[in-house]
Design a protein that fits this description.
The complex is a heterodimer of chains A (414) and B (128). Chain A has 19 helices and 18 strands. Chain A is α/β, with parallel strands linked by helices and 414 residues long. In chain A, β1 and β2 form a beta hairpin. In chain A, α2 (59-72) packs across α19 (403-413), α3 packs parallel to α19 (403-413) and α10 crosses α11. The longest helix of chain A is centred in the first third of the chain and has 14 residues, at 59-72. Chain B has a two-stranded antiparallel ribbon. A two-stranded antiparallel ribbon of chain B has the order 2-3. With 128 residues, chain B is an alpha+beta fold. The longest helix of chain B has 11 residues, at 26-36. Chain B has 2 domains: 2-39, no CATH class; 47-127, Alpha-Beta Plaits, CATH 3.30.70. The chains are: A alpha/beta (414), B alpha+beta (128). Chains A and B meet through β2, α1, α7 and α9 of A and α3 and β2 of B.
Chain lengths: 414, 128
């Protein structure tokens, strides 16, 4: 068995310097990973069992039942994918095509718009390795990586010495936090905190645009114009700037136009890039894969004559409008993450859950099929939050099937 | 008084005072035990990790000037330790001290370095 280093699949940072201690084909110790990663790599505290209608069955029976449900459904949905390998995602898209199904992922209500803008080359981006070696101005906008991606600051964005940033964060890097509160990231990144009201991100972007154009910036929340001008000066002088866009920013933008204007303006005088703070380890991978195949990153329907895409094809609208009549959930827990009324509606249709661990959705699913924990019990490939492809290695043996094989078996049954 | 000084210097533990274990001193023993137990894992430099707060982010590991000098390609660059010259590393999601005699706060020529404390987002590290 490979001794590592291994890749942690705890979040989309995909830290690739992890070593483990093994005993009896179990991970008993994890070195260098954060608590999130340790929790993921040590495996599920409540592994999911293979069931149909709550009764334990063998995998073949569960796969046959899943195939029957999907085949009989007029409008099946395949959803999730953020915690699956690229190989499983490709298979899932293939199944959706065959079924004429709806397919969507968590980016539909997460960082999808930013990933789409990057893939369509509307926003310049860079890799995390470039950030480590070159970035001198780092903006965390609506993001708190100290909680969402614990090793973000230490591995890439702020603390490490890079090839062109040898003097360390005290002298070589400036971190700016734009957020609605004093986050824990703000607490360790010095005094450049710009606290704005909830939803005021577009207004602050416009104020910043004015400041960058040497006009007096005004805001309805009366932020001191001198502070905004000071920030504009920092951004203008950046040799290699990067904006880490969190959900705080994404959720407050009805349209990405203010962000496009700001990035264009910043790149007139400096060199600025944007990386979305993607949560699940391979959410961006699904977006890339679907984009390559259909030209869309999510919200796709294969049931028409042509591939259909749009907000009406999002998981939220499909559930709200009672369109779907069965759903297969892969590596996700929509019942826990969707708003209550939508979760309630989703729970009324037959659900198939493919996941290594038990979760709220699996508890009410008609069929549950346990899968191998990717990055631990099986290998594959994934795409990091910055768009870089990373190879995952298998650490321990398992007799559980991978997501990819489960989907392939369902396709065979259909 | 000599016992108290040695207790604070961690040369002795409260178990080394037999009279304290007598019934009539039980309340005093318990109070002293409550005071001493929370810092039981403290190192010679006074470095103490509150394991219930630490999230293993590694900011302290990467920011530590001793780690940067001793392991520039590994911890100094944000990655896993590449040699045994480091004084802080992450194991099971918690920061652990090692080679503590290399810490800037150790010995007669110690300096009051705050790199690990200042960079901790959860205030899990303190010097006692």
């Amino acid at each position: 068995m490979d001794k590592g280093p291994f890749v942690c699949t705890g979040c989309a940072l995909l830290c690739d310097d992890i070593t483990v201690d093994l005993q009896d084909n179990r991970v008993i110790g994890v070195n260098t990973a954060c608590l999130k990663g340790v929790s993921r790599m040590k495996g599920c505290s409540s592994p999911m069992t293979c069931t149909v209608d709550g009764k334990t069955v063998d995998v073949d029976t569960a796969i046959k039942e899943a195939a029957r449900i999907l085949e009989e459904a007029k409008h099946p949905l395949i959803f999730g994918h953020g915690n699956s390998t690229l190989e499983a995602q490709k298979k899932s898209i293939e199944l959706a095509r065959e079924l004429g199904a709806h397919i969507d992922d968590t980016s539909s209500f997460c960082q999808g718009p930013l990933v789409e803008a990057i893939l369509n080359e509307k926003i310049p981006t860079c890799t995390l390795d470039e950030v480590r070696h070159m970035a001198d101005v780092i903006v965390f906008w609506g993001a708190d990586p100290s909680h969402s991606h614990p090793r973000h600051l230490s591995m890439y964005s702020y603390f490490p010495r890079g090839k062109q940033r040898q003097r360390g964060w005290e002298e070589d890097r400036t971190a700016v936090i734009i957020d609605v509160r004093r986050s824990d990231t703000a607490a360790v990144c010095g005094d450049k905190l710009y606290e704005i009201p909830v939803g005021a991100d577009p207004e602050f972007m416009d104020a910043l645009l004015n400041a960058l154009a040497s006009k007096v910036p005004k805001t309805s929340f009366n932020m001191d114009p001198k502070r905004i001008l000071e920030l504009a000066n920092i951004l203008k002088k950046a040799e290699f700037g990067v904006v880490f866009a969190g959900l705080g920013m994404t959720y407050s933008l009805d349209s990405l136009e203010p962000l496009f204007r700001l990035m264009d303006k910043l790149n007139e005088t400096a060199k600025f890039h944007l990386i979305p703070m993607v949560g699940q380890y391979n959410m961006r991978g699904f977006d890339h894969t679907l984009f390559r195949e259909t030209g869309h990153i999510n919200r796709v329907y294969f049931g028409g004559e042509e591939v259909e895409h749009g907000p009406q094809r999002s998981v939220v609208e499909l559930i709200r409008n009672n369109i779907i009549d069965a759903a297969m959930i892969i590596g996700s827990d929509p019942l826990a993450s969707l708003p209550g009324p939508l979760a309630k509606k989703l729970s009324k249709i037959p659900l198939i859950t493919i996941d290594p661990c038990e979760n709220l959705t699996s508890r009410i699913s008609k069929v549950t099929i346990p899968s191998a924990l990717s990055g631990v019990e099986c290998g594959g490939t994934a795409i990091r939050m910055d768009g870089v492809e990373v190879v995952l290695k298998q650490i321990i043996e398992t007799n559980r099937l991978t997501d990819e094989k489960i989907i392939a078996r369902i396709m065979e049954e259909i | 008084m000599a016992f108290a000084v040695d207790l604070l210097a961690r040369k002795l533990s409260i178990e080394d005072c037999p009279p304290l274990k007598e019934e009539k001193y039980r309340s005093g023993y318990e109070k002293l035990n409550d005071l001493i137990t929370p810092v039981g894992n403290v190192t010679e430099t006074g470095f103490l990790v509150h394991e219930d707060k630490c999230i293993g982010c590694g900011n302290c590991v990467v920011a530590c000037p001793v780690n940067v000098v001793g392991d520039p390609e590994g911890t100094g660059s944000g990655r896993a330790p590449s040699n045994d010259k480091v004084i802080l590393y992450i194991k099971d999601g918690i920061v652990r001290p090692v080679n503590i005699h290399e810490c800037r706060r150790f010995g007669p020529n110690k300096t009051l370095c705050y790199a690990c404390i200042d960079t901790c987002p959860t205030k899990a590290i303190e010097f006692v």
